[in-house]
Structure formats: C-alpha cells, structure tokens
Amino acid sequence: MSSPPTSVLRHTLEERTDFDEIIDVRSPAEFAEDHIPGALNCPVLDDAERREVGLLYAQSPFEARKVGAALVARNIAAMLETHLRNRPKQWRPLIYCWRGGMRSHSATLWFNLIGWRAGQLTGGYKTWRRHVVDLLATHPAKHQWRVICGATGSGKTRLLAALAARGEQTLDLEALAAHKGSVLGRLPNREQPTQKWFESQLADRIERLDPAKVTYVEAESRKIGACALPNALIEAMRTAPCIEICATQEARLAYLLDDYAYLGDNPAALASRLERLRGLIDNATLERWQAWTHERNLPELFRELIIRHYDPLYARSQHKNFRQINGARRLMTDDLSEEGVRGLAAEVAEINISFQP
Q1: What phi and psi values does residue 88 have, to the nearest 5 degrees?
Q2: How many secondary structure helices (H) and strands (E) does the chain include?
Q3: In the CATH hierarchy, which fold is given to the domain comprising 10-122?
C-alpha cells in the first residue's frame, strides 16, 4: 500500500480556482481585517495563542516552535472534528497563512497525510494583498463605465439592482461598503468593512467583470462612509459617460421615506448623525431638524434636507467631479417605485453611449 505524500506542493494565486476550497489558517483577528473572498477561516492559532507564541519566539525560537507545534496540532485536530469533518476524500483545498510559512505548511502537510490533495499558497495572504493593490491600480481603466448620477433620493441604488436583474453588468459600491454614502447612510446593525476587506471585495468583483461589456456604477465621492475608493477607479468614473436620473421632488421624498424608514426607530441616533452637519447648516435649522427627529416627523425633515442640504451639495459636487455630466443623457421620472425603476432600467439599457477609451 502506497504512503500519503509527505511533501507540500506550493501553488500560485492564479491557480486558486483549481481548488475546491480556500482555507485561511490565520488567527480570527487577521481574518476579520481581510482575507481572500470566499475563504473559510480555520485558525491553527487563535489570537491569544499567536501572541503567546510570538512573545516566546523573541526569547527562544526553539521553545516557541515546541509550544506552537502543540497548539497547532490541537487546533488542527479540532478543525478536523468540526468544520472539515464532512469533507470527502477527493476534496482539494488551498491553504494560506500570512506569508506562506509554518502555519499553512503544517496544515497542508497534515491534510496531505490524511489523503486530501492539499496545496499551499506561495507567499500566503501577502501575495493576495499585492494582487489587490495592483489590480485596483490598473483594472479600472480597462472597463467601459457608465455612471448613474442623480440627486440624493433619485433611486440610483434601486436602479442598479433593476439593471442587474435585467442581466446588465453592474458594480454596487455601496453594497460593498455597507453604507448608503450620505450623511445618514450608516446601515442599522451593520458595521462597515475594514478598508482592506472593502478593497479585497472590490478587487474580486472588478476581476469578474467583462471589460467588453458596459458596467453601470453609481456616482460616488472619494469615500463611502469610512471606505475610500481607489484613485484609479475614481478617475475612471469621473471621466466616464453619465446618465442622470431627474426625479421630481415628491418622488424623491417618497423614495427616501421608504428607503430610510428605519431611522424613525431611533430618534436619538438620527439626531446625533445630523450633528455632523453643524457648521454646514445654520444652528437654528439644525436644531429644528433635530427636534423633528424626536417628533418622528421624517416627511418634513427629509423635505428640508432635500432642499437645503442634498440638492446644493449635488449641484456643487457633480459638475465639479464628473467631467461628462453636462453631456449626460437625462431621464425624467415621477415614479421611483420598484415598477417605476424597472421602467427606468429598460430606458437606461437602451441608451447607447459610445465608449471613448
């Protein structure tokens, strides 16, 4: 009977699609900051254990390796009894750690001894991070972007979803950033991703786009909440053809009241968010708005926000930042319901704007 392989085969990042699953054996904190999209976290050292071994290594590398080996063995045993218990014999995982060192080497070796055809990612997570940085610096210029513009409340995000439902190619930056992009854009009970995790998701999404097809994207500023867009993507968007949604004020108000309805559940939190406008809005107006939040008077609040904050901001930013906004195709609407937006999506899909690389 032949013995299982005892050597570890290394693989490039480009080979990752040849594997059934990607396993990240770094600590939970490392994984939470960023990881390869789709990877499963099976840490061979948890956060406390990693700190313990690191401190010991500074005193005695030999003792650190001995203690680390025992911890890794116990943790690999635990993952085999839990997360990986039902993986079949033919399962082929790709394993990575921080630099492609001992943590991923140990797991890969054990998996191969079991009989799985496991591989180790050369360079580990750092290889992935370099890939993300390089891709975000080069790929945006290769795509045919169409920027969906329109004042706050024009249903741009809903329009992107309707375009995607029609089979059009879209990039929803606000979904990746977990934020709606406005002063009130923080989502309830959901934190934004770290900057690195946002960039990893963005790189993964852009890499899957077909450069031969138009990609629709919503007009955004340089930051969506706390997440910063890469410079190359900002530049590609700002030079791209624009399609502007010109919705009536009443349609926008109805849309905002529906889309931000959850803000009425926590008046104190809403008033706190409005405080960020102090210095941009006169004190009397801001205090009136904050009083309306406590009265749950969202219709009056949003009506004034449209007139006194959102629209002036849009007028300043769009014409300053998007170079083709003056030549934008403009679609008029008084209906931003789901049915109305589906109609807009059909109109947008029919617009043929020549691509100037």
Answers
A1: -75, 170
A2: 15, 12
A3: Oxidized Rhodanese; domain 1 (3.40.250)
Decide the pairing of beta strands 223-224 and 227-228. Answer: antiparallel
**Which positions of the chain have pLDDT values less than 50?**
1-2, 357
Report the alpha-carbon angle 173-178-180, nearest 5.
70
- Could you tell me the residue ranges of all domains in the chain? 10-122, 143-350
* Domain at 143-350, CATH class: alpha beta
Nearest to 101 by CA among 17, 213, 26: 26
Tell me how far apart the alpha carbons of residues 2 and 12 are, in angstroms, rounded to a whole number.
28
154: its two tokens: 């024009």
Q: Please tell me the predicted confidence (pLDDT) of residue 5.
A: 53
Nearest to 356 by CA among 198, 202, 240: 240
Closest CA to 265 of 318, 206, 323, 188: 188
**Strand, helix or coil for residue 333:** strand
Q: For 79-116, how does the pLDDT look when each residue is reduced to its tens digit (9 = 90+)?
A: 999 999 999 999 999 999 999 999 999 999 999 999 99
Q: Which residues are catalytic?
A: 97
Q: What is the pTM of this model?
A: 0.94
Query: For position 354, what pLDDT does the model report?
Result: 61
- Cα–Cα distances in angstroms (integers) from residue 56 to residues 50, 62, 64, 106, in the given order: 10, 9, 5, 19
pLDDT digits (tens, 9 = 90+) for 49-58: 999 999 999 9
Helix ranges (DSSP H) in 190-324:
195-208, 231-238, 249-259, 267-274, 283-294, 298-305, 311-321
Q: What is the DSSP string of 125-176?
A: HHHHHHHHHHHHHHGGGGSEEEEEE--TTS-HHHHHHHHHHTT-EEE-HHHH
Say how many Å lie between the first and final Cα of the chain, rounded.
Answer: 61
